[in-house]
């Protein structure tokens, strides 16, 4: 049962398609055909209409590409939404243009989300040696101060989805920004995902005794569930970053966060995670089944998705295998055996696209 902090329940539409490398929430709707009247001409036209619709859909897909746009949800979190954009040679610049309020994102905006950059902001992007230098027009400074960190995180995480970009530098009107123009948030020389996202620090956390770890919790809006990356502080004496990440997943989000989890708080790792050639193997106790069917060895898709998304944020992890008490006889909610390692999907939070 999904928990808010520790309580609440929602239904996730993520499916076993994660195993085949497809984006989360990317599901096919079953179609029921009604037998047409026995009229040859009508049947022929119906088939032609279907073929035309199919070709139109394929043509549309051929002209678009899925990109991750980090937008702001109703709770103020910066969240990836995978949206089909027109194919464009200047892909990095294009993704930032789709972050502008009132821009081309307007007709594609998912319910419960809003754009990040101020209206009429123009951008240019120059990529060299793994660093994207972004130059904003003067309109960039027309944002609310409470969005300052969100803008930095959104721009950084949106651009670093591209293999050619690892770091980001910001300019405005050709001048390098050392701090944000409204509330003065310092800007590091090289912004990267290591700076975190949706950063949550407990009031009592000792920054010198902790280290950042990014984990994926869940949120819901309008009967849809989506994954939210959150950077927390884990004990620095935990040498293994994988164990630290799992511990934060199990402990769950703050009760005040509006975020959700499907992890049972009794979940534990039986052994130190083993990593080889980018593949990590995790051995859990039986609590990993949570509210799923333990007798049938069913693991919640929400739990599996959260684990894979979280661990593949680590630089050395490309795929994940899960065992329970040393045995790999697990199935997902669709009844499919989890015999192969699970990789990160190409897109996250695809919604209805």
From TrEMBL:
Annotated PROSITE patterns: PROKAR_LIPOPROTEIN
Pfam families: Germane
Segments forming domain GerMN: 92-181, 242-333
Domain of life where this protein originates: Bacteria
Database matches in InterPro entries: GerMN
Protein name per UniProt: Spore germination protein GerM
Species in which this protein is naturally found: Bacillus safensis
Lineage: Bacteria, Bacillati, Bacillota, Bacilli, Bacillales
Gene: gerM
